[in-house]
Amino acid sequence: MTDVTNETAGETAAVDTPAAETLSGFDALKGMGTASASEDAPVYVQKLDAQGRAYSTGKRKNAIARVWIKPGTGKITINGKDQMQYFAREILRMMIAQPLEVTDRVTQFDVDCTVQGSGLSGQAGAIRHGLSHALTHYEPALRPVLKPHGFLTRDSRVVERKKYGRAKARKSFQFSKR
Known about the structure:
The protein is an alpha+beta fold.
């Protein structure tokens, strides 16, 4: 900006010139490139409902799980049943407990979830995905622990649809030469 004196009134007024604007614009841009990566990183905050529970949705194949966690003794309830009754196979119960074991929170939270769709394996994967997200909603500091294990990533693989003129999704009918 430059000062210009008005000769008739004897007043000094500021007048913008293009060169002054350009210089002030460069001064403003100088500090922009020096910002560190930590300032740009998103800040995660705790998300709880009125009852003090953290909620999240997990998905796997065609299964959708709604998961709530709250402080407790480590009890896991699925569709109103204990996990031992709902999942008979040990491997499926182990899958569900993986996020709690990795974060050392096995006996600190009660897990209540409803799950529908797909089969038992897909439902267990959906519960694990939802539980991992619910843990990060309750304790945002757990995100760096869960992320490297892949628990926060939704596995997008689904069954391929059957095509017209095919026996299954890719299988053809038997070819007849005559």
